[in-house]
Amino acid sequence: MERAVSKIQDDPTIHEHLGDLYLRQGKKARAQEEWQRALKEWPEAVSSDFDAEQAKQLQKQLDELKTR
């Protein structure tokens, strides 16, 4: 995933998945960074599967992570 994000830096889906992986590894700060990047990138993403509903869900996960 890190290699993918280095090659395609503005894909919110890749950032979201990388954030998920970081969270599973216990790297909460890095997960938060990637999720924030995904939310920042998705409005401008041309060909992404990332949509408004997914952004809403990701924002909820991000908010929950911040309160832990």
Task: Give a verbal description of the structure.
The chain is mainly alpha-helical and 68 residues long. The protein is 72% helix and 0% strand. It has helices spanning 2-7, 12-24, 28-41, 52-67. The chain starts with a helix and ends with a helix.
Question: Layout of helices and strands, plus pairs?
Answer:
Elements: H1 2-7, H2 12-24, H3 28-41, H4 52-67
Low-confidence stretches: none
End-to-end C-alpha gap:
25 Å
The count of strands amounts to 0
Estimated structural class = mainly alpha
Q: What string gives the helices and strands in order?
A: HHHH
| Shape, principal axes of CA atoms | flat
Figure out the total of helices.
Answer: 4
Strand count, sense and barrel status of the largest sheet are: none
| Approximate strand percentage | under 5%
Query: Average pLDDT across residues?
Result: 89
Helix content: over 70%
C-alpha Rg, in Å? 11 Å
Short description:
The chain has four helices and no strands.
Brief descriptors of the model:
mainly alpha, single chain, 68 residues
